[in-house]
Batch of 4 targets.
Target 1
Amino acid sequence: MKGSPHRGTAAKRNWSNFDTYQIPRFSWLPRIETILMDNPETPASGCGEPPIVNMGAVVANAVFDAVGARLLQLPMTPARVREALKRG
């Protein structure tokens, strides 16, 4: 079969171990340390958000890229992936 075995049709045919796939966990993320600095010369403003906020979207896009199933709800459980695969 031509093409990458991790994309498209090839991935759909070879994705037989989904029941043992480990769903990413927050405990796998690196520790993020936030330091607030006082600067009296600058007016107060927002602190922003750490980049892990969009981790769900990143994983959902990876699942879609691998198996062609679009997941729109967290948590992305094996049952929800199977349902999405059935919907096409």
Note: The CA atoms of residues 39 and 66 lie 47 Å apart.
Target 2
Amino acid sequence: MKNDIHPKTHPVVFVDTSCGEEFISTSTLTSDSKRDIDGVEHYVINVEISSASHPFYTGKQILVDTARRVEKFEERMKKSQVLGSKKKSKKEEKVEEVKDEAEEKEIEETPVIEEVVEEIPAVEEVVEETPEVIVETEEKEETDEN
């Protein structure tokens, strides 16, 4: 085995920040903080998830998520479920079309009731005014010709 080609290992303590569990081991990782455990100085390495807090190992759905990934995923799922419930299948759409066509046929078959509307006297006044306007335009044409 060649000398000085392998990284140096140090005693470390991995601290799970979500549940506070500690694992003592050796690693090539180092940190600025150190702790004495049984008279041996260990580097303290903080980790977010370990076997003590991961749902796969614990069987629980408790997970500390610093980036809000789980909450964002749950929000997307709720939106998709709401939209999915509003969306209709092709079969349901066809049933609605048949119902709409049946309603239209019923409407066409119903008799239309007509109402008699009385004539409005204002219409007669408009008819009387239009010849005066025509007369005025004829007088203007005669003055233009002279």
Note: Residues 123-127 have pLDDT under 50 and may be disordered.
Target 3
Amino acid sequence: MATLQNPSVALVDADLWNIYDVTKEGDVYSYTKRSRGRLIKGWISSGGHIQVRCYVNGKTSDLLVHRLVAIKYIPNPENKPHINHKDGVKTNNCVDNLEWCTASENLKHAYAIGLTCKKGIKHPSVKLSEDDVLLIRRHTGVAREMAERFCVSISLIHKIKSKTLWRHL
């Protein structure tokens, strides 16, 4: 087993590294008396990351593989608490694809590569198309008429007309 490159190991029980090892590609191996070098199968968590179940000192822990890779191989001199997947693929736990970051940096990166897009028709709760919005903006009548026509609130019509919403059009 390789020595740790990162003082952030305190985030994970130090005894873990006596029994388990993780490669730079994100494979986790168990080194118990019964299973010398057995690859541990992981699963995809509800958040989309790969997790593995480890047993240390009689306790069970479900650990995120990308966190284990980062703790072991990536220096974290600024003690940043989060780990970013550079390519945006949460199951790619290769050390070259990971970097320590803040929550803000992680969110900015997600927007920059298109993982989080809440504009226009890509917004999950969108009720109007871009054509609808343009029609609403051109309409010179009473806002209530447009609200009833598109089954939306009058305040939404006002926000569209004033370009508080749908600014990108």
Note: The first strand starts at residue 20 and ends at 22.
Target 4
Amino acid sequence: MKNKSLFLVILIVGILGIGLTLTYYSYDNQYITLNNLYEAQVSDDKIVYDEVWKVVKQQAQVSEQYAESFKSIYLGMMDARYSKDSNATFKWIKEQNPEFSQDMYMKLMNTIESQRSKFTSVQRKLITYHQEISNLVKLWPSRIFVGGRPIPELKIVTSTKTENTFNTGKEDDMDVFEKK
């Protein structure tokens, strides 16, 4: 009888030990996976941020160059066509003159909006991974096994205006074309 009881106790302790070991490895693997996802997301955020500003800047440069070229061509054409003619005003009204297209500016505006949305999306993903790591480290029962692990610092890319707004609790209207 004693042998059976001893065997039963050893069996129960063994099963509990194996269960706790497997639980530890499960939470450890989950922590490592989430941490790796978080670090990869930080890298992805940098890539997307870089892409956002390169695309916007290059499209803005094309639009700016288009406006300058149009101005140069238009002024040269008007000067050559009408500078020596006394009835120039009447001809100008009757003739079909080139029109400045706003399509590039509309495309630039749409690009800015879509690229910023893309960046916001990857930032939200980063926040989600951070939250999952934090929950794993802080919540029961996983905190028993991985509670001492570090939670990565969450760095969100925002503007100075946003930081100031949240620090002061005040938001004032923003001038889109603010001159410095």
Note: Residues 2-157 form one domain.
